[in-house]
Amino acid sequence: MGKPExxxxxxxxxxxxxWKRWGGEAKVAGKDLEGRVFYNIFLIGNGLSLAYAxxxxxxxxxxxxxxxxxxxxxxxxxxxxxxxxxxxxxxWISQRT
Length: 97
Fold this sequence. Notes:
Elements (H helix, E strand, L loop, with lengths): L4 H19 L1 E4 L2 E4 H30 L3 H29 L1
Antiparallel strand pairs: 1-2
Helix pairs in contact: 1-2, 2-3
């Protein structure tokens, strides 16, 4: 869209909406969780969202330049990274319970 400042405004709006939740504790599935846990989940989720967006934009460029190897490898790398994050998070959760 040619407006890079939109990303900053969008991020501020997302942060403002979650600010109160990060300051206290909440009960989830019978466990008390600190606000920092919600903050970290928020950061990881937004990081993944940005990574997917950048990866999708890069795939369009690879498609336009007929870079088929990169066009195939990029989504596979993103899926592998997401799978690794899933495995690591499940392992972390099982160790904490």
